[in-house]
Amino acid sequence: MLTGLTIHELAARFRSGAATPSQATREYLGRVAALDPQVKAYLTVTSETALAQAAEADARFAAKAPRSLLDGVPVALKDVFCTRGVETTCGSKILKGFRPPYDATVVSRLREAGTVMLGKLNMDEFAMGSSTENSAFFTTRNPWDLARVPGGSSGGSAAAVAADLAAGTLGTDTGGSIRQPAAFCGTVGMKPTYGRVSRYGLIAFASSLDQVGPFGKDVADAALLLQTVAGHDPMDSTSAAIPVPDYARALRQDVRGLRVGIPDEYFIDGLDPEVEAAVRGAIDTLRGLGVKTESVSLPHTEYGLAAYYVIAPAEASSNLARYDGVKYGLREPRARDLIDMYSRTRGAGFGAEVKRRVMLGTYALSAGYYDAYYGQAQKVRTLVLRDFQQAFERVDVLVAPTTPSVAFTMGEREDPLQMYLNDIFTIPVNLAGLPGLSMPAGFTQIGLPIGLQIIGQAFAEATILRVAKAYEAATSWHERKPPLETPR
Amino acid sequence: MSAEQRRSDTAYEVVIGLEVHAQLRTRTKMFCGCSTAFGAAPNSQTCPVCQGMPGTLPVINRRAVEFGIKTALAINCTVNADNRFARKHYYYPDMPKNYQISQYEEPLAEHGYLDIEVAGETRRIGIQRLHLEEDVGKLVHEGSSLETALSSQVDFNRAGVPLMEIVSKPDLRTPEEAASYLKALRAIVVYLDVCDGNMEEGSLRCDANISLRRPGAKEYGTKVEIKNMNSFRNVQHALEYEITRQARALDTGERIVQETRLWDPDRVHTVSMRSKEFAHDYRYFPEPDLPPLNVVPAWIDEVRGTLPELPAARRQRFVASYGLPAYDAEVATQSRGLADYFEAAAQGSTNPKAVANWVLNEILRIVPADDDKAIATCPISPAALRELIALIEDGTISGRIAKDVFEKMLATGEGARAIVAREGLTQLADAGALGAVVDQILAQHAKVVEDYKAGKKAALGFLVGQVMKSTSGKASPAVVNQLLIEKLPKV
Question: Does the interface ipTM go beyond 0.90?
Answer without folding.
Answer: yes
